[in-house]
C-alpha cells in the first residue's frame, strides 16, 4: 500500500504542480552565490535544464537586466543552445536569468561584475609599450639609413 | 550555435586528398629544379618579387590569422582587429633587416649562422633553444588546428585528419624543398586572399557595415570604445610578439637568404602590406555574429561558424563547408610547410653540421634532410596526438621571442656591444615575460620580455662594448 | 566610441585592400614570368 500511495501521489503532484522547481539553472563553477567577475568585458554563461532527459528540442530564453528585479530586461537569446559568450560588455553590474522559451519559470538570476584594469595602471603599461615599440622602430630605421649611407 | 558538420567525411577526405595530390605533384615538379643543398634549402637563392612576397605573406597567414583574428574582434572589437593587423609591421620592418642580412651573410643558410657569428656559442645555444621550442609548438598548434578543422567541418576523427594534413605537407616539402614550399605558398596565398574577400563580401551583402555597427553599438558597446583597456594592451603586445616571431625565426631568415638581394627587402615590405587587411576582413566576419543572430557558444570557432552561417543562408549548402575548408587548409598548409623546411634546416645546418661536424656531401645531403624533416614532423605528430595544451605554450612564449628583437637589431646594425650583457638581457627578458604572462596579465608577456631585453641591449652599447668579430665566409655545404 | 563612418570605412577598405592584394600578386607573377625572374 505504501509504495502505491507514494507513486500515485507523485503522479498527482507532477500533474498538479508542474512548476515546483525552476526547470533551468545556470552552471556555475565554485560558489553558486558568487558573481561572475570579468576584467575583459567577456561573460560566458552556461545553463542546464533540470531534467536533461526531457530536454531534447527545448528552446531557452535568456534575459539581461541592470537591476536585480529585472524591471527593465532585454532578451539576449532565444533558441536551443545551452551556453553563450557575451562580449563587449561595459564596466558595471549585470543580472542574467534563463527559462524555457515556452514560458517556464525563471532560473535563479546570476550576477556579473565587469571591471576593467585601472586607468593609471593601463596608461603606465601603454606608455611602456609605446616607448619599446617606438625605440625598436627608431633603432631599425636609424640603423638602416646609417648602414646604407656607410655602404654607398 | 556550434559548427555544423556540413559535409560528409567522404567529401572532407576528398577535398584534402585532391588538394594534397596537387601540392605533392607540384612539389615533385618544382623539386626537380633543386640542385644540391642551396637548391633544396634556399630555392637556388634566386627567388623573385612575386613568389617572395607571396611566400612571406602566406607563411604569416596561419590558422591563427583565420581563427584567432575573429576571436580578437569578437572579444576586443575594433582595437582587437587593429591589434592583430599590427603584426604586419613585423614583416615590413624585416625589410631593412633583410638588406643587412644579405650584406653580412651573403652565403648564410640559417638564422643560427648569424647568432653564432655575432654572439658566439652561448648566444647560438640560447637562440637554438628558444627557436626550437617556439617553432615546434607553432607547428604543433597548426597540426592540431588542422585536425580540429577536419573534425568540425567534415566529421573526420581528429587523429586521422591531423595525420592526413601533416602527411600531405611532409610529402611535398620532402620532394621539393623550398621550391615546393614557395611555389605552393603562392597558390595558397591567392586562395586565402580570394576566400577572405568572397566570405567578407557575402557578409556585407547580407548586412552592411553600418547595420553591424549599430547592432554592436547597442549590444556590445565596449567593442567600439576608443578606450577599451584590454584591447589597447593587446595592441602593443601583439606588435612586439610579431616583431619577435619574424625577426628571430628561421622561417623568415631562410626566405631572406632565398631571395635575390634587391628583391628581399621589397618582398618583405610588400608581404606586410598584403597581410595587413586580412585580420580586419576576417575580424569583421566575427562582429557580424550578433547582428546575424548567430549565438556564439565557442569563441575559438566564431570565424568559421559565422562564415558557414552566411554562406549557408546564401544557398551554398555543402559548398560553404568546402570553401571554408579549402581556405583554412591553405592557411594551415602554407605555415606547416615553411616550418617543416626552416626547422629541419636548423637541425641539418646548425645541429648536424655545426654541432656534430656531420658530412653533407653528395647523396648524403638528401638523406640527412629527409631524416630531419621526418623527425620534426614526427615530434609534432606525437605532441599533437598527446592532447597536451600546446596553445598555452605558444602564447606564453611571447617573452621568449620578443627578447630576441634587440639582439637581432644590434647584431645587424651595430659595430660593437657587450655580448655578455645582451645575452643576460635575453635570459632575464624570457624570465620576465613568463612571470608577467602567468602571474600578472597575459597581455603583457611579450611587452615585458621585450622591454627588459631592450634595456640590457642598449646598456651593452655603453658598458665595456667590444667590436663584433668580422664576418667569416660560410663553409660550403657541398 | 569609434564612429559609424570610421567603422564602415575600415571594413570597406579592409576588404578592398585584401582584394587588391590578390590582384597585385597575380600582376607581379605575370611580370616576373615575362621577365623570366620567377626564381
Properties at a glance:
heterotrimer, A: 152 residues, alpha+beta, three-stranded antiparallel sheet, 2 helices, 32% helix, 29% strand, elongated, disordered N terminus, B: 478 residues, mainly alpha, two-stranded antiparallel ribbon
List the helices and strands and how they pair.
The complex is a heterotrimer of chains A (152), B (478) and C (39).
Chain A: H1 2-16, E1 24-26, E2 36-38, E3 43-49, E4 60-65, E5 73-79, E6 83-86, E7 92-100, E8 110-114, H2 119-151
Parallel strand pairs in A: 2-8
Antiparallel strand pairs in A: 1-3, 3-6, 4-5, 4-7, 7-8
Chain B: H1 9-31, H2 36-42, H3 49-60, H4 63-85, H5 88-104, H6 111-154, H7 158-206, H8 209-219, H9 229-248, H10 250-258, H11 263-275, H12 278-287, H13 302-313, H14 318-355, H15 364-386, H16 390-395, H17 398-402, H18 405-413, E1 416-417, H19 419-440, H20 445-460, E2 466-467
Antiparallel strand pairs in B: 1-2
Helix pairs in contact in B: 1-7, 1-14, 2-7, 3-7, 3-10, 3-11, 3-14, 4-9, 4-12, 5-9, 5-11, 6-7, 6-14, 6-15, 6-19, 7-12, 7-14, 7-15, 9-20, 10-14, 12-13, 13-14, 14-15, 18-20, 19-20
Chain C: H1 4-34
Précis, in short:
With 152 residues, chain A is of the alpha+beta class. Chain A has helices at residues 2-16, 119-151, and strands spanning 24-26, 36-38, 43-49, 60-65, 73-79, 83-86, 92-100, 110-114.
Describe the structure.
The complex is a heterotrimer of chains A (152), B (478) and C (39). Chain A is built from two helices and eight strands. Chain A is an alpha+beta fold and 152 residues long. In chain A, the strands form two sheets. In chain A, strands 2-8-7-4-5 form a five-stranded mixed beta sheet, with no helix packed on it. Chain A has a three-stranded antiparallel beta sheet with strand order 1-3-6, with no helix packed on it. Chain A is elongated. With 478 residues, chain B is an all-alpha fold. Chain B has helices at residues 9-31, 36-42, 49-60, 63-85, 88-104, 111-154, 158-206, 209-219, 229-248, 250-258, 263-275, 278-287, 302-313, 318-355, 364-386, 390-395, 398-402, 405-413, 419-440, 445-460, and strands at residues 416-417, 466-467. With 39 residues, chain C is mostly helical. Chain C has one helix at residues 4-34. At the A-B interface, strand 5, strand 6 and helix 2 of A face helix 4, helix 5, helix 9, helix 18 and helix 20 of B.
Amino acid at each position: 500500500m505504501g509504495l502505491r500511495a507514494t507513486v500515485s501521489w507523485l503522479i498527482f503532484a507532477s500533474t498538479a504542480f508542474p512548476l515546483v522547481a525552476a526547470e533551468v539553472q545556470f552552471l556555475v563553477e565554485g560558489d553558486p552565490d558568487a558573481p561572475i567577475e570579468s576584467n575583459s568585458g567577456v561573460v560566458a554563461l552556461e545553463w542546464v535544464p533540470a531534467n536533461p532527459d526531457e530536454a531534447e528540442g527545448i528552446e531557452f530564453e535568456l534575459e539581461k537586466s541592470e537591476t536585480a528585479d529585472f524591471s527593465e530586461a532585454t532578451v539576449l537569446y532565444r533558441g536551443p543552445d545551452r551556453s553563450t559568450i557575451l562580449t563587449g560588455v561595459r564596466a558595471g553590474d549585470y543580472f542574467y536569468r534563463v527559462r524555457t522559451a515556452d514560458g517556464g519559470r525563471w532560473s535563479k538570476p546570476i550576477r556579473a561584475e565587469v571591471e576593467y584594469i585601472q586607468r593609471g595602471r593601463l596608461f603606465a603599461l601603454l606608455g611602456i609599450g609605446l616607448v619599446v615599440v617606438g625605440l625598436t622602430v627608431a633603432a631599425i630605421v636609424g640603423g638602416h639609413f646609417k648602414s646604407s649611407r656607410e655602404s654607398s | 550555435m556550434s559548427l555544423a558538420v556540413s559535409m560528409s567525411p567522404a567529401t572532407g577526405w576528398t577535398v584534402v586528398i585532391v588538394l594534397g595530390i596537387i601540392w605533392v605533384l607540384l612539389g615533385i615538379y618544382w623539386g626537380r629544379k633543386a640542385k644540391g643543398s642551396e637548391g633544396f634549402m634556399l630555392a637556388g637563392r634566386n627567388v623573385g618579387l612575386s613568389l617572395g612576397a607571396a611566400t612571406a605573406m602566406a607563411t604569416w597567414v596561419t590558422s591563427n590569422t583565420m581563427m584567432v583574428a575573429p576571436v580578437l574582434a569578437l572579444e576586443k572589437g575594433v582595437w582587437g582587429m587593429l591589434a592583430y593587423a599590427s603584426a604586419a609591421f613585423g614583416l615590413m620592418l624585416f625589410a631593412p633587416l633583410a638588406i643587412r642580412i644579405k650584406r653580412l651573410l651573403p652565403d648564410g643558410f640559417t638564422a643560427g649562422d648569424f647568432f653564432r657569428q655575432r654572439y658566439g656559442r652561448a648566444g647560438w645555444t640560447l637562440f637554438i633553444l628558444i627557436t626550437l621550442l617556439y617553432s615546434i609548438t607553432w607547428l604543433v598548434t597548426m597540426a592540431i588546428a588542422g585536425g580540429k578543422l577536419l573534425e568540425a567541418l567534415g566529421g573526420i576523427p581528429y587523429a586521422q585528419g591531423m595525420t592526413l594534413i601533416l602527411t600531405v605537407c611532409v610529402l611535398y616539402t620532402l620532394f621539393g624543398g623550398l621550391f615546393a614550399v614557395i611555389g605552393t605558398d603562392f597558390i595558397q596565398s591567392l586562395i586565402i586572399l580570394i576566400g577572405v574577400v568572397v566570405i567578407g563580401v557575402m557578409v556585407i551583402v547580407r548586412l552592411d557595415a553600418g547595420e553591424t555597427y549599430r547592432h554592436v553599438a547597442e549590444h556590445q558597446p565596449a567593442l567600439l570604445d576608443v578606450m577599451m583597456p584590454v584591447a589597447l594592451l593587446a595592441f602593443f603586445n601583439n606588435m612586439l610578439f610579431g616583431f619577435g616571431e619574424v625577426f628571430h625565426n628561421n622561417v623568415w631568415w631562410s626566405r631572406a637568404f632565398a631571395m635575390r638581394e634587391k628583391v628581399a627587402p621589397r618582398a618583405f615590405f610588400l608581404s606586410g602590406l598584403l597581410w595587413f587587411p586580412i585580420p580586419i576582413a576576417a575580424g569583421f566576419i566575427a562582429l557580424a555574429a550578433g547582428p546575424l543572430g548567430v549565438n556564439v557558444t565557442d569563441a575559438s570557432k566564431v570565424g568559421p561558424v559565422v562564415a558557414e552561417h552566411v554562406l549557408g543562408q546564401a544557398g551554398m549548402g555543402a559548398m560553404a563547408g568546402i570553401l571554408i575548408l579549402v581556405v583554412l587548409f591553405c592557411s594551415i598548409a602554407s605555415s606547416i610547410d615553411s616550418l617543416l623546411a626552416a626547422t629541419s634546416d636548423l637541425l641539418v645546418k646548425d645541429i648536424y653540421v655545426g654541432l656534430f661536424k656531420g658530412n653533407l656531401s653528395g647523396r648524403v645531403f638528401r638523406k640527412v634532410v629527409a631524416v630531419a624533416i621526418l623527425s620534426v614532423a614526427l615530434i609534432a605528430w606525437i605532441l599533437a596526438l598527446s592532447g597536451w595544451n600546446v596553445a598555452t605554450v605558444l602564447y606564453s612564449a611571447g617573452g621568449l621571442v620578443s627578447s630576441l628583437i634587440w639582439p637581432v637589431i644590434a647584431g645587424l646594425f651595430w659595430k660593437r656591444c657587450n655580448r655578455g650583457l645582451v645575452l643576460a638581457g635575453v635570459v632575464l627578458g624570457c624570465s620576465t615575460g613568463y612571470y608577467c604572462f602567468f602571474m600578472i596579465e597575459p597581455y603583457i608577456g611579450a611587452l615585458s620580455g621585450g622591454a627588459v631585453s631592450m634595456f640590457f641591449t642598449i646598456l651593452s652599447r655603453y658598458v665595456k662594448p667590444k667590436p663584433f668579430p668580422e664576418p667569416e665566409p660560410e663553409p660550403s655545404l657541398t | 566610441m569609434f564612429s559609424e563612418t570610421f567603422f564602415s570605412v575600415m571594413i570597406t577598405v579592409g576588404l578592398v585592400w585584401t582584394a587588391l592584394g590578390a590582384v597585385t600578386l597575380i600582376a607581379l607573377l605575370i611580370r616576373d614570368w615575362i621577365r623570366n625572374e620567377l626564381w
